[in-house]
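REQUEST
  id: r-88c1
  op: predict_structure
  target: Fe-S cluster assembly protein SufD
  payload:
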Amino acid sequence: MTSSTTDHTSDAVRSDPDGLDTPEGLTTVDSVGPSADPAPDAGAHSHVSGGVTVPVTGGAPFLHPVGSADLADHPVPSGREELWRFTPLRRLRGLHADAPLTGDPLTATWSAPEGVRVTELQGDEARSARGRSGYLPTDRPAARAWHEAARTLLVQVPADAQIAEPVEVTLTGQAGGEATAGWTVIEIGSHAKADIVLIQQGSTTLTDVVEIVVGDGAQVTVAALGEWAADAVHLTHHHVKLGRDATIKHIALSFGSDLSRAMTSVDYAGPGGDLQFLGLYFADTGQHLEHRLFVDHTAPHCKSDVLYKGALQGKGAHTVWIGDVLIRKSAEGTDTYEMNRNLLLTEGTRADSVPNLEIETGEIVGAGHASATGRFDDEQLFYLLSRGIPSDIARRLVVRGFFGEVLLKIGVPSVVERATETIERELAVGGY
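RESPONSE
  id: r-88c1
  status: 200
  body:
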């Protein structure tokens, strides 16, 4: 099978530093420009919706609606909306509608180095902590969490602190039947440096929001490890407020759950912000894993770099990746690139991938996006087999190499170790 690839670059052309011509394990067909979308192969088990590069004014409201804490501003989605058209609403257990959020909150435990404060806020204090990043809910599940989450988990790193060990917060669900809501706020003081690891596990039906406030000149890595039980349903929104000359590496690792849908967005609070979004996911039989990103370039001379990779195996395994980058008129000197790659390991899988790039100013350093989906490269497998490597080991090596690019960039040893172990378990499930 020949894979589907989209690659669009703005007039300020920027080459792919990783070599788009030959994605690991994929055979590609390149296209340039929004009119060059390849038609999906009717006999294939993948689907790629072509990326779009468009000049806009004020952004496309169907991709990033105006936020509001008023639940009345967020009607129950029908599935025909652009933001919901890939999501199987019938599997959400009413999280998108009006299912009671009366289940017990997730149990929170943490390991915080000296100088880091982790607090569970209750009642009015919990509600008053929400929105510190400037975030307002952009869909109904998030708006419900705003009003109904019983607590707010607050993680604070003081200004100028240099935290050598990762801050680990583990959220454990106790039951998947009763829906619940959660809210987390992470505050990194100016010129501080820290690694925050959120481990999500257990059985749950959850809608939650994670706000991340990064002070001026701070450097932070935030890694969210989705290691849910197989029956979990999780709708989440991570929102980043990135200060002047601040740096964030945001990592999303999605493995468990029956269905997970993650929205991640960023606002630049000043010039010089540097953002890296990394994602890694592995979908099994019947599993739905969905990632949506919105990078809102509002300040000048900022950077964003997005790399998400996923593998799929088993009948009905479905992944969705939507990457939207908006460069506003005020964001002169922007340098941005986003890429998504998917590897289909078996028949009966489907990967939807839609990169979007919206540009309001031509005064940028560079902007581009790319998407590729395909099966194992037969030539690559033949090369390994011809050197006496058994077929199952050869396929395992190809998958390891495919994910290796993301793993090398994570930079937090404990996160890399957990992700690698999970990938090995996933490969064992597939018989590799």
